[in-house]
Amino acid sequence: xxxxxxxxxxxxxxxxxxxxxxxxxxxxxxxxxxxxxxxxxxxxxxxxxxxxxxxxxxxxxxxxxxxxxxxxxxxxxxxxxxxxxxxxxxxxxxxxxxxxxxxxxxxxxxxxxxxxxxxxxxxxxxxxxxxxxxxxxxxxxxxxxxxxxxxxxxxxxxxxxxxxxxxxxxxxxxxxxxxxxxxxxxxxxxxxxxxxxxxxxxxxxxxxxxxxxxxxxxxxxxxxxxxxx
Length: 229
Hints:
Helix content: 25-40%
Distance between the termini: 72 Å
Mean pLDDT: 76
Order of helices and strands: EHHEHEEEHEHHEEEHHH
Shape: globular
Number of strands: 9
Radius of gyration: 24 Å
Number of helices: 9
Low-confidence stretches: 1-17
Largest sheet: 3 strands, antiparallel
């Protein structure tokens, strides 16, 4: 139903078996933790907007899927969420979406156009030959970078069976005198150096890719190799 956190295509067996448990958990998360679904915050009436499709049965081309990718924020942070642009309605050059009337982007038809970029994406044949290798129109590839904030990022099915989601936040900035003060700078360093913060950032302990291509130390030979002339 419109407005629910977990949008499910009713009557489809491959989603109906477990979705109730997931939906209940997500709904309770919103209620108990005061979280906000940023997509519904900006698009409460959007119909048929899904982020995951069963590509094995080409359900994307029927716009049958589920919305299981979210940006959830607490209510205080949601006040700083901003929207720009609108929902994708597919290839602007392929249809007269602007002439469909106000609110067209909230319709199931608009969502179906967006899912296939107005038919530009070809479904995979059921012969086992894999997904189509036909070139994706450049306009379709570029459309992902013009997706509105608080929206769904429609990428080609060859990228993934999932779509991305986005949301921008406009946070208040500190006055220059405060942001540049020694006290504020010291606080930032202290917060980044404490044990708890380091424990939440294990990726910082990983070696960079460039470190694997560094020159060997002077006078050392590669293992099993010989000195280059």
